[in-house]
Amino acid sequence: MKKYFIKRFASTIPVLIGVTVLCFILMTMSGKDPALAAAIRSNSAGDTILVDSLREEMGLDKPLPTRYFLWLKGLLKGDMGKSVVTYHSITDDIKTFFPVTFQLVIMAMGWMIIIVFSIAILCARFHGKMFDHIVRVLTIGGICLPVFWLGFMLLLLFAVRLSIFSVVPKAGISGYILPSFALAFPSACGAIRVMRSSLLSEISSDYAAYARTRGLSEWQIIVRHGFKNSLPPVITLFGQYLGYMLAGSAVAEKVFSLNGVGTYLVSCVVSGDSSAAAACIVIIATVFVITNLAADVINRLICPWMVREIND
Amino acid sequence: MLLEIKELSVKVKSSGVKVVNGINLSVDEGEPLLILGQSGSGKTMICRTLFGLTNRYNFDVSGQIFFEGKDIMSADAKKRRKLYGSDIALIPQNPMTSFDPSCKLGNQLAETYRIHNKSSVKAAQNAVFEAMHRAGLEQCKAIWSSYPYMLSGGMLQRAAVAAAIINHPKLIIADEPTTALDAEHRIAVTNLLKGLCGSAAVIMITHDFAVADRFGGYAYIMKNGVFVEQGNIEKIIAAPENEYTKELLNAALLI
Question: Which of A270, B10, B142, B206 could be joined to B20 by an S-S link, Cβ 3.0–4.6 Å?
Fold first, then answer.
């Protein structure tokens, strides 16, 4: 088991290096000159001397490999340069915006866990019954729902009609309830279907039949045995969804007027602030890689026999 | 009469094939009983029907199964669950896939005890250790904290025997308990089950005449869902009357 964890952890290092290389290449190929973008924002686009000095200051006159290593060194030190959008240090900007997105995504994961586990268990218990059929239809529809539309509908219902929540985000957890639900719901619908299938497969297995012959009820079989064994595909999916939600948080943030890293990333891309955009992408990609690693580790801890089966 | 099966039929809904066709069978308390037949003859289906494992979407079941005079097929699920694992126990065909792979073996055996007896964890652990000893398992503490994948097929089969006897059942149904085992373990498990007769009635379902001969008792020979011959196993082996029984015996000798 320990060997597996070390091996799995080591395999993430080349992935992270690849992410930084890709981000850097995309940043340089974006076609937007960060020095010129900075000059435009300070209304000095015509001042070629200023643009050149900015280019020199940003290290854009150096060869690409040198620029990559300088950028990587800065990234590791936490010095990612200055944003041409906010004029602040990119590190400070990320420190300001990231907690908003982080809270949003963590709360969305909370929603997902509550929705997926409870509904999938009920579907497995009442397989083939009306509840199961209704959930199957609703989840197909739910997967197709765009986050922005769902967000507007939730605002319209809970903020405008019922006045339970505020249209302008409030401080504290209550400000994240609607945006996190809007972000989580389409993903949760997909995960419900996966977990339902996984649970059904588990409760049709030999050990479930044997448990029935030992006097266990259907609920006991599902909760005590089927649930744990059905988790691996769902945890893997959750790991991926967490990354997707982090990367796609911009839509929910925009709809609910939250200033998170997603909104910051979009404004950086629009303004040609490729350094800040690349820094955001590297951070999102790192979180994505870490959550996937965590999902694999959790799976191995829950299902220790998988290590032996795969012989890793 | 402990168990009485009357005119039991199981039909596959999609094909209309009767995998069990109007069989009658009875077992007295503490007696050994054998059901012999080739794979696909319907032996396991009797066992599955008895435990309510035949899916009603796929199978049509008719007939009656009486346990201590009460029809268990018409009993509600809660009443049947009280019988399963306590008065009627199963030893499954494949022990490697019969235990939950993510749950420690000790917990699964203790669960079988605690479902039917309101007891503390400690009392359940003692009952598990006692059942393990009776099933011939040593190093009980190590087995208690092992996951099923950590144990051999022979040990798991004995663990299944322990799970079957933990609640001192009146009837044990052993569904091909020796199929997944090597010759040495096959003899050991057969002897173990033979030793349980007396304290419980044991129905041994098998296709192996050597195992049946060692186990002894009254035997039913099954082909295509019906019993084609019945009698004492020693007599059947010595002088089979039915052609199918003769074929089976010849095949067993050839192997």
Answer: B10
